[in-house]
């Protein structure tokens, strides 16, 4: 919501927020300071009072007198903040006590350790009662803090009142000032936007006032003309800052070099090898305490294989051949484990030049040694893996310069690392592809993008094989490219298979074109045959329908002209007429089937039961059918297609 406010309201909000934060911090600081001051004053008053009462009651405990001790404690009634007091004898028993009218607690049955204790709403002090080195007992005093908390509540109320009044005044003042403050800022913002969008540094912001905002406008206008100079000064200041930081680091290192607070182990070793003085850091490295090291010699905690080299350096120091010597050595820790350390030794001499003792600086490098060992093992695993993969692998620096090839590369190309450093790609890449490959690699290298390309590489036998090459950028935690890892995969067999597949596809397309021509020719021949068949069917159908019409006509004449014929004969005539009509329909269906080559054939389902009934109804009378033909079978396929006709 704050982002959508106008600059005037933002200024007002900032003023109000600044005033509120400043006043709140001031009130809180004042309250805390007052609380701490008052609390310290109360503690000091209680301590002083306890010391006075302890001194005054010492005789009553030395020469036991309970009444006088009680009278001495009752004098505390003049101190309104003392709620309870008690005297304990040397055995820790209550000797005398005092309780004010407002107390709500009992005195402890026995004293605690000397000093100050805090209870809810009060302070408790246990003061030793002694004379010289002889202690006769303990004084207990409880100090009420309710008046202090009441005062603090009053201070908090005053602070809140002042805060509210100041915020109200800040609100009205900010309303009156926000326009005069925002107008020059808006002008500066508009000018900055013009400079940012158009890149025109000749524009200047309008100056409205002669105050700090006016000075800001003037400075801003001057800045537009001196950007380059400002950047130069900034670079110089940055260099000076780095030098200052380096000086600070040097100072910090010198400070850490002090003996007792050094971050590395320091030991003073006598001429006989005994430890004269060691710091705690050295003890932590070796696993011994400072006291334990004081009874040992450096030979006692040095690995046997490193003692000889250590003594050789010491002898050269004593002889004056060298001023210092360093070595990486192994120490034997108290638990028997080995720790690696970097040892630096110098010799401190007396004023007459005689050796005094050795100063040894020990740095724990065990983690580094283990890391180096792990790194060596990791590099060995990497080299074993990279030298045994099928691809040719290589690595390059961030600028693209190759600094490593795997063994597979040298086996295939027949080159050496020195040859690759001298000639590079020109030695093994095909000359027709070098320029294109280098150009594409430089583009991806500049953009930090993954690189992929396909080109031939010459083998040790002088023959070229095609490789699919890829390079991946390896970045650090900040996203900067630190190196490139590349692989070259042999795809010659794949390319040959693809080319063979393309040739097969081309042949297949040729066969497909030939097949289409053959189908078109066969279709024309079939069409001609269908036309001839259609003409033949039409002729046959026309000739067959002539006798059928005669059969139909004569059967109808017999039925009409001879009504006296027996019923059986009349039934025969009707069957003849029905059969002739059925055959005529079949001929018409045959004509329709002959025209299917011209029109689309429409298929529909046929009710076989109706067809069977229809056939049976046209059969001869049962009495006239020969016995051997009395059984008929009707067979058809369930989905036999029939025309609608």
Sum up the structure in keywords:
five-stranded antiparallel beta sheet; alpha+beta; single chain; 54% helix; elongated; 645 residues
Describe this structure in words.
It is elongated, with a radius of gyration of 58 Å. The chain is 54% helix and 19% strand. Strands 2-1-5-4-3 form a five-stranded antiparallel beta sheet. Strands 7-6-10-9-8 form a five-stranded antiparallel beta sheet, with helices on both faces. The protein has a five-stranded antiparallel beta sheet with strand order 12-11-15-14-13, with helices on both faces. Residues 621-645 have low confidence and may be disordered. The chain has 16 helices and 17 strands. The chain has helices spanning 7-62, 66-74, 146-198, 212-225, 227-256, 280-286, 290-293, 304-319, 366-387, 407-413, 417-423, 425-428, 434-447, 492-561, 567-594, 608-617, and strands at 82-89, 94-99, 115-119, 122-131, 134-144, 265-269, 275-278, 324-332, 338-349, 355-364, 392-397, 402-405, 451-458, 464-475, 481-490, 603-604, 642-643. By secondary structure, it is of the alpha+beta class.
Describe the structure concisely for a colleague.
With 645 residues, the protein is of the alpha+beta class. Helix content is 54%, strand content 19%. Helix 1 packs antiparallel against helix 2 (66-74), helix 1 (7-62) runs antiparallel to helix 3 (146-198) and helix 14 (492-561) packs antiparallel against helix 15 (567-594).
Radius of gyration: 58 Å
Strand proportion: 15-25%
Based on CA inertia axes, which overall geometry fits? elongated
**How confident overall, as mean pLDDT?**
80
As residue ranges, the low-confidence spans are 621-645
End-to-end CA span? 83 Å
How would you write the strand order of the largest sheet?
Answer: 2-1-5-4-3
Major β-sheet, in short?
Answer: 5 strands, antiparallel
SSE class: alpha+beta
Helical content stands at 40-55%
* Total DSSP helices: 16
Strand count: 17
